[in-house]
Write a structure and sequence with these properties.
Blueprint: E1 37-44, E2 47-53, H1 56-62, E3 68-74, H2 79-89, H3 93-100, E4 107-111, E5 114-124, E6 128-137, E7 141-146, H4 154-161, H5 172-185, H6 187-207, H7 211-243, H8 251-317, H9 338-359, H10 365-396
Parallel strand pairs: 3-7
Antiparallel strand pairs: 1-2, 1-3, 4-5, 5-6, 6-7
Helix pairs in contact: 5-8, 6-7, 6-8, 7-8, 8-9
Length: 404
């Protein structure tokens, strides 16, 4: 279950409701989207007004009551509400069209009178789910649109209510940074959970690999790919905000955005590391299956090898020779102990071959240890070859020597 007490509906990978050739700026919300719920927080250094409103006229009455106004819209099911808020703050129709078409990649686009920012908020239930967050930054306002109720902005609201930090004394640009920082920080618990899942998959692959294990690994791989698609363009968008000059973001806020950019770089590094680890686990799973098959084939081969001389002995004693015609025609057939002798010969042959295999360490507990020793010996040989290659390159001057 999600942290908001409900499970989000699964979004399709790509869903665009505008038909080819439709007029630009056309608002066509998803019919399954929940109706919008509008929250307004107007604040300044010495005041804070927080209210849930039911119509845009109430929003209009609250705008301008304080230095900064934050309008948060949860739900995109009503085009009239979105259009009315857009008209109130003079938001561009093309940007509003991107708000309702929630397949947008994270980006930052300047428009006249506002700055449009798209980010994706990640949440992990059984599968990774991402939600588009559309943010409009103006001179003294911030407008955020979310697909569903519930967001990652609770810490920002607490800072506003208790006047923690410098958020109450800063402009709207700092509020936009705080919201983006909350979205980025929400990725860290997600990637930590994937790290724990990969550890569990590794234990399963090593101890008891199965089809369910490899299916789990493929699911994590798909989720990590989706996480990368969400964070990678977000990094570029935040980098552009921290680097480019803007009338809505001052120099001091750009310093904080650089820290937010650094967090996105850390997340991308972790995601790439986990993707490589997941690929290695898949290779380890295939290697484990191959080793298990080799062990089974080895046991079957040893059994077949032991029975080969036994079959040879039995085939000799099964030949139809008449011992009365010649003393050399299988005299054991008339011997009193011929049958016990044949069985004893088979038993001695089988036991002797088994002990010979044990002596060669082809079977038994020592065989696995021998394989591990040979593998470690091979790794040491590779390391020594690498050291010799590096030393030779350093001697020739192609590689700088390591400092002492």
């Amino acid at each position: 279950m999600s942290k908001h007490g409900h499970r989000r509906r699964r979004k399709p990978r790509f869903s665009r409701r505008s038909k080819p050739g439709d007029l630009p700026g056309l608002l066509q919300p998803d019919p399954e989207s929940p109706p919008p719920v509008v929250h307004v927080i107007a604040y300044g250094p010495d005041q804070l007004l927080e209210k849930r409103v039911t119509d845009c006229q109430q929003v209009r009455d609250l705008v301008g009551k304080a230095p900064v106004t934050w309008i948060n819209v949860e739900g995109l099911g009503d085009a009239n509400t979105i259009r009315s808020i857009g008209e109130l703050f003079h938001l561009h129709p093309l940007a509003l069209e991107d708000v309702v078409n929630t397949h947008q990649r994270p980006k930052a686009e300047p428009y006249q009178g506002s700055l449009f920012i798209v980010a994706r908020m990640a949440e992990l239930n059984d599968r990774l789910e991402t939600e588009q967050i559309s943010l409009f930054l103006g001179q003294n306002f911030v407008v955020t649109f979310l697909e569903d109720p519930g967001d990652a902005f609770d810490t920002v609201r607490q800072h506003l209510r208790h006047s923690q930090g410098r958020i109450r004394s800063s402009n709207a640009g700092y509020l936009a940074y705080a919201l983006l920082d909350a979205v980025v920080d929400g990725y860290f618990p997600v990637v930590e959970e994937y790290g724990e899942r990969l550890d569990e998959i590794e234990d399963e692959v090593v101890s008891r690999p199965s089809r369910a294990t490899i299916a789990w690994a493929h699911q994590v791989k798909r989720d990590l790919r989706g996480l990368r698609r969400a964070v990678w363009p977000l990094r570029e968008a935040i980098n552009a905000l921290s680097r480019d000059q803007s009338e809505f973001i001052d120099a001091e806020t750009r310093v904080y955005l650089r820290d937010c950019y650094d967090h996105t770089v850390q997340i991308i590094d972790i995601v790439e590391t986990y993707r490589e680890l997941d690929a290695d686990l898949t290779d380890l799973y295939l290697s484990s299956l191959s080793n298990r098959l080799n062990e089974v084939m080895k046991v079957l081969t040893i059994i077949a090898t032991i029975f080969m001389p036994l079959s040879f002995i039995a085939s000799i004693y099964g030949m139809n020779f008449n011992p009365q015609a010649s003393p050399y025609n299988m005299p054991e057939l008339n011997w009193r102990y011929g049958y016990p002798f044949a069985l004893g010969l088979m038993l001695v042959t089988a036991v002797g071959m088994y002990w010979f295999f044990r002596y060669k360490r082809w079977v038994g507990p020592d065989s696995l240890e021998r394989q591990e020793r040979e593998a470690r010996r091979g790794l040491r040989a590779d390391a020594e070859d690498q050291d010799k290659t590096t030393a030779a390159a350093q001697h020739n001057g192609s590689v700088p020597a390591k400092p002492n």
